[in-house]
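In response to the reviewer comment on reproducibility (Comment 2.3), we provide here a single inverse folding case reported in full, input and output, so that an independent group could reproduce the run without further information from us. The C-alpha cells appear first.
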C-alpha cells in the first residue's frame, strides 16, 4: 500500500477496525511511523481503548474523508467497514438501541423478528446471537432488514483488490508473525491494556488468548496454537465474505 500510495500520490484511509484504537499495536501489526514513510493515514490510531465506536461512526467518518481526500486508498481487511463506506449500506445509529440490561431474551427477540419481519427469518443465522440482536435493533429503529436492498449499490467509482495467498504459505507466515509479535512484547502490550483500560475490548484474536494466558487459564503453547487456529479460520471466512459481498479483483499476493 505504501509503494502504491507513493507512486500515485495517494492518502490512506485505514479500514482495519482494530487499528483505529491506540495501544493495540503489536497484536494488530499496526503500521509504524517509519514504515508509513511520510504517507498520510486517516482513521488510524485515534481512539482510546474502550471507546464506543461502531461501524455506523466509521461510515460517516470514512465518507467525510473520501470527500476531503483527493485520491484515497482504503487499506485493511474489515470488509463490512469497507462496504459500509463505499456502498449504499444503511446503518442504524447505536443511540437508538436499548442498553444491554433492557434487552429481552434471545428467544423473545426471535419471536419479535418473526412477527415484524418474517421474510428475514429464513436467511437469519439463529445460532448467532449478534446477528439476532442486530436484526432486533433494526426493527426497533423501524427498519425492515429484508427490505434493505441497496447495500450492493456502489456510491463511488472504485477499484477493489483482494490479495490472495496459498493457505500453506499463509499458515507459515502466521506462525512466523506470531513469534515476531511475542518477541516484540505482545504479552506486555496486552497486560498494559488490561491494567490501564479494564473496559477495553479483548474479544479479539490474539488479545483474547494472551489475556487468558496472563490469567493462568492456558499455557503459552496453548495460546499460540489457538491464535494460529483462529487466525486461519478467520482468513478463510474473510476470503469467502469478500468474494461474495464485494466481488473484488483477486490478485496473487506473492506475484511481482
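Designed residues, in position order:
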Amino acid at each position: 500500500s505504501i509503494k502504491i500510495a507513493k507512486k500515485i500520490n495517494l492518502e490512506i484511509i485505514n479500514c482495519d477496525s482494530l487499528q483505529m484504537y491506540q495501544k493495540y499495536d503489536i497484536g494488530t501489526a499496526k503500521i509504524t511511523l517509519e514504515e508509513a514513510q511520510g504517507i498520510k493515514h486517516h482513521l488510524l490510531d485515534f481512539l482510546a481503548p474502550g471507546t464506543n465506536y461502531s461501524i455506523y461512526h466509521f461510515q460517516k467518518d470514512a465518507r467525510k474523508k473520501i470527500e476531503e481526500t483527493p485520491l484515497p486508498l482504503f487499506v485493511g481487511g474489515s470488509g463490512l467497514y469497507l462496504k459500509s463506506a463505499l456502498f449504499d449500506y444503511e446503518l442504524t445509529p447505536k443511540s437508538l438501541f436499548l442498553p444491554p440490561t433492557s434487552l429481552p431474551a434471545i428467544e423473545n427477540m426471535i419471536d419479535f423478528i418473526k412477527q415484524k419481519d418474517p421474510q428475514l427469518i429464513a436467511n437469519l443465522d439463529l445460532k448467532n446471537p449478534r446477528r439476532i440482536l442486530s436484526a432486533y435493533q433494526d426493527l426497533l429503529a423501524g427498519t425492515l432488514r429484508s427490505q434493505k436492498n441497496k447495500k450492493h449499490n456502489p456510491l463511488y467509482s472504485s477499484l477493489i483488490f483482494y490479495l490472495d495467498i496459498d493457505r500453506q504459505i499463509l499458515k507459515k507466515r502466521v506462525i512466523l508473525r506470531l513469534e515476531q509479535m511475542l518477541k516484540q512484547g505482545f504479552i506486555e502490550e496486552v497486560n498494559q491494556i488490561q491494567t490501564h483500560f479494564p473496559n477495553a475490548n479483548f474479544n479479539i484474536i490474539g488479545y483474547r488468548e494472551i489475556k487468558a494466558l496472563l490469567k493462568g487459564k492456558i499455557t503459552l503453547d496453548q495460546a499460540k496454537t489457538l491464535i494460529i487456529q483462529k487466525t486461519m479460520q478467520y482468513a478463510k471466512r474473510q476470503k469467502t465474505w469478500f468474494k461474495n459481498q464485494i466481488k473484488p479483483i483477486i490478485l496473487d499476493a506473492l506475484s511481482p
